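Here we describe the complex-level prediction in full. Unlike the single-chain runs in Section 2.1, the two entities below were treated as one system.
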Amino acid sequence: MSTPTGTPPSHRGPLRRLADFLDDRTGYRSIVHEALYERVPGGARWRYVWGSTLVFAFMTQVITGLFLWASYSASAQTAWESVHYIQHDMAGGWLLRGIHHVMAQAMVVLLALHLLQVVIDGAYRAPREVNFWLGLVLMLIVLGMALTGYLLPWDQKGYWATRVATNLAGLVPLVGPALQQLVVGGPDYGHHTLTRFFALHAGFLPATLVLMLVVHLALFRRHGLHAKQPPAGPDAMFWPDQVLKDAVAMLAVMAVVLGVILVPALRTMAAGGTVDWGHVGAELGAPADPSQPYAAARPEWYFLFLFQFLKVFEGWGATGEFVGAIVVPGVIMAVMFLMPIVGRWNLGHRFNVAFTFALLAGVGLLTGLALHEDYYALWVDRGSLADAERLFAETGGDERKIAAALGGDRARIAAMEKRLRTLEKVRNSEAFLAAVRQARIDAARASELALRPERIPPAGALELVRQDPATQGPRLFAQHCGSCHAHVDPASPDAATILAKSSAANLHGFGTAAWMTGLLDPNQVAGPAYFGNTAHADGDMVGFVQGDLQDAEAWTPADTQAVIAAMASESGLGVAAPDVVARGRELVASDERCGSCHRFRDNGTELGTACDLTGWGSREWLAGIIADPTHERFYGASNDRMPSFGKAADGGAPQLTSEQIGMLADWLRGEWYRKGGGAHR
Amino acid sequence: MHPETSPPVSPEAPRRGFLAKALALGCGGLATLAPLGAGVWAILDPLRRTSGAAAFRPVTDLAAVPADGVPRRFAVVADRVDAWTGFAAEPVGAVYLRREPGSDTVQALSATCPHAGCFVEMNATGTCFRCPCHNSAFTFDGGIVEPSPSPRPMDGLECRVAEGGAVEVKWENFYTGIAAKVARP
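The structure predicted for the assembly as a whole is:
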């Protein structure tokens, strides 16, 4: 068929003559013929498409991967940065990365379908045993590429998932620790972890895969297609009958992949919103930070079953992890490798099919369980657990106290224990969901910082995040200040609950006119938002606000307003008419008013009785009081419990560095980089 | 060539076969277009990039440029963005500054050779510029010394002396190897 007949050479068109020339020199026609004209016994079928879709998925990964490679930089200071650049700066980068990311997941699904089809059809039986084994190895390589690819963006998600995976590799008997160190590229995670994972992901693994795939396909051709019996119709040719079905399936796979990427964006557009294409496609978390816990750490969904499986062995210690992560998966792989041999017997084949289905069911069940645990709080009404919550708060979860509280009624105790377990699950789930929310906030903030006009410093994006008041302020506050101080908008619905638990002033809006207005309000000054829960609750300031300040003749409302304006002007967080501010400053300085206790600028009042109000609420003032409230400028000897965070105890280091104190001050003042500028708070 | 594998094509096949072939190629091509298109789109991204508008940058003080007609080399310092990394106040290139005796006017020449972009240096005897790559030679005011492979004289840069004596140069890069002096975007 490949030899043109009938037409003399001189009458053939130039294209035909070029083709003849090439065929004469290369014999390409017979190669193409060989490749395309494969007999498909019983005709083309949809069930045969899975292998081809897998080859297509792999080709997609090679194409997108090579293009991504052209822009990716594997080092701890540039991996996240270059991926962020691909995602947010490069034209079409989001689409390229999105396809690579989603197709990787599609590939895992296609692998499962291909395996399922082969096992159900018994296509592993003689003479195809070796090819089945090759297929299993190919599957492991694909999973290996998924695992290594997850780390490459060097974000929190990939970083922590990889730490877990490599630590599990360390459990392998004898060679484990050495294996782990080799993969990680040293005792710690860093540049060489990335270069090695990248070399594995884009070099060793795909090269091995291609070699194996060539043999896999060659053997497939040698054995011919394993036809499903009984045949559906007369034999057909691979080209074009089966190829057409394969191509339609490939197109469908690509349509699904594009759908996953584009549907959220299209929805936004349909709702009239504008789409930030940098946030379409694959997610990118905050830059990897070994010093920052990441409670949202989960492996990619197709490894979630392993993650959940390890929980079965909770309480077994290292043995449990060894069994769960290495022994059981190892046994499962061994059974799968034995399938062609077991399958020689009819009963064996049934066992194989049953085993595969059981395996998939188990994987599905574990994945479902993992998701159920994580998202439990979404479908449980916490209000219905109010009684359990109350009881838990009263008893601290102590079993005997719970029993006593329920009057020793066994049925009630059992029911309550069940409800307490539910409550714990809800709490764990809420913590996870909160961590996911926080991870999104941190990721968005890191991205906002990376897109500043100054871009990322040479030290990397982590440096930006670590010096960002908006990111670090809340963390530092929660760790060092939050056990006493509240930081809650007084107008928020849960303000009262939070304030009741605090034992020092609410620092939300500290330095603003609103904050100062509350301080000078007789109904608030001794409340929980100000001095109420402190040693100063019956101090001079409270006495002044509730006494002298209420004398409308001595202190007109205009005077109070002027003082508020002057103080907000000291912090730089308030704007008022200059004459009002000037009047306020006079009042603050006057030794018959505030100045009788407070130093203000050069009013000459001795320090030591009350805070120096010069520059009150400014960055410098805040940094000063955080560093050392016992300084005579601040509370001096009357300081109530507040540690001197910037002062080193004998020979030690201070609790907070001056950089950290500065970030806390900036955060309290609402001063941090915002896209397009923006006002305070 | 393969008489033994005569395909069992049914009689109505040719037309249906053509449609199936076209559809198969169409579907496969369309599916492959997505990754290929996204890749080409992204790899062409550098074409959108510019190095930013040329701006005057302080290079040195007038006092540091002796009025003896001999060029001196100075680094041009500027903020620079390399893809995602921002560098503050980094040396981005070099210029030769020269002042005639008794003059307050400074002439600035880019140190980049207009021939192939090498770094032009002074010749061994200090009598003219010489490029170490292909021996392009230039007079102190940038003119070509024949024979020279360079298609044009050294690239002059706009230069001004600000109040207070700061010498500022309008830093630009030009395409090399052509007779016309054309600034890069």
